[in-house]
Amino acid sequence: MTGTVSSVSPIGKCEVELVNRSRVKIVPNKKKDFDFGVSIEFLPDPAIAISGGEIITNWGWAPKSLEIKSKEGAPLVFERGANPFRFTVPKRTDGFDPRAIIINACWDAELKAKLLNLDRDNLSFEIFSEVSDSEIVPLLFDFGRGMRAGGSPTLISNAINVNSQLYTPISVLEDRSKESFRRYPDGSIHVDKLGPYSFDAGQKETSVSDPLLNTSKMDVENWEGVYRSEDGLLHSSTIIDGIEHSGPSFHSCFFELLSLIGSSIEGNETKNQDKIVKIVENTIGLMDEEGHWQYQFPLEINGEVVEKGWTSALSQSLGAMAMIRAGEYLGDATLKKYAEKAMQFSAQDGPLVHIFNGWKIFRHHSGNNPSCVLSSHLYSLMAISDLTEVMGTKKWKKILDSAILDTEAILPLYDTGYSSHYDLSHILSDLPSKSATPQYHCTHAMQLSWLSNKISSVRISEIAKIWGSYIF
Predict the structure, then answer these.
(1) Hey, where are the domains in the chain?
(2) How far is residue 251's CA from residue 255's CA, in Å, rounded to a whole number?
């Protein structure tokens, strides 16, 4: 067992001493009412960077609080209660470097009295590392799609907890839900819970002058199947019966527009302004007189081919929210009329509304398939709430109130008791149930959290909390 304590510094009222390369001594202040602790930078055995291993210490008295993280600041998962205390350190990969580990341990003031009763004025312990015989690969949470340049994971682990079941290794989960995990050549496994998002349970910033959700973190151009066309817009392509079809991907365009606006607001900068203006102008130019953004390539889904010219509640609602926020950011009040036009088409009893038991559900796409994808319905409700904010008319308030009631009624249909359904194909299309991936469920939870802070609905707020508790 090897490793070196590189440095120590006090936390609270105490003095700390590095006795030797592995032993740390803490002398707490004699005043009784102050907690105390130590911050340690530990350099494990260098071989841990190659295969992973464990860091081990016998505290004597377990700390009241304990934080373990990489030197870059990403927290590591550990289990409490073990004595001697040990925690797993995965091998080095992109996004995680185990060659320096920060350990912050704190004890409460009551320990001082216990030390005095034992005629002791200090607490000391040793720290070691042990190299693993087998390779330990890291799970990097929320590192970002496509290993986003400059990204930083929010959590590092070698296991994953789903519905109170601990999986390590996670091969069972990978086989069951391949789209939830991304393996990379260096062995690392990336768990990006929300696809393009990272989860934020707060979602308190819901004004049209704020970034929308976490869209500022998106890198839409690197999504699979999306490419930059000569017109400057993001396009996508599909192959049906051996023939390739392509055209503007409106939902990708609007996600990119929301990302540019959000990052500009957060960074208080104007470098993206020309790009924002270009996307706004180009997409407005592609809207028809009735407010449609029509896809110019066919869509094949659930055995149905939807011919080109189809529309989507997802694109209409994202486009509306993007136009409203672009108008706020650019100071162009005329843009909200395009948002209203887009949602006027989406909200009427037309091709983007499915009526079930008297309730209106916004459809992911037009065509014969009901396509009641929950995230598209919730984005539509979010867009209507944005329009109610900027238009302030009785008309949109009435539409919003009605959409809230419909949403309150349909949400239980999507609840599995431990996650959410992606859509209602098991109810409306006589197909097997389609559970939401962890990413999509987190999207649902984040949308509901945003709505609970934007609109008045006790029921939606309650469901937002319940669905948030399902997240591993």
Answers:
(1) 4-131, 139-191, 215-469
(2) 6
Q: How far is CA 177 from CA 8, 74, 99, 137, 181, in A?
A: 43, 25, 32, 19, 8
Rounded Cα distance, 279 and 235, in Å: 13
- 28 forms beta bridges with 14
- How does pLDDT run across 138-192, given as a tens digit for each residue? 777 665 444 444 556 766 776 655 544 455 545 545 554 554 566 666 667 666 5
- Nearest to residue 288, comparing CAs of 338, 235, 231? 338
Structure tokens given for 138? 């890291």
We find that the CATH architecture of domain 215-469 is: Alpha/alpha barrel (1.50)
CA distances 13 to 35, 37, 78, 117, Å, are: 7, 8, 26, 20
List C-alpha distances in Å: 235 to 144, 147, 275, 342: 22, 22, 16, 20
Non-local CB neighbours of 265 within 8 Å, separated by 6+ positions? 209, 210, 211, 216, 329
How many residues make up the chain in this entry?
A: 472
- Provide the token pair at 353: 């509304």
| Six-digit token string for 129 | 């590392």
Q: Which residues pair with 70 in a beta bridge?
A: 101
Domain boundaries 4-131, corresponding CATH code: 2.60.120
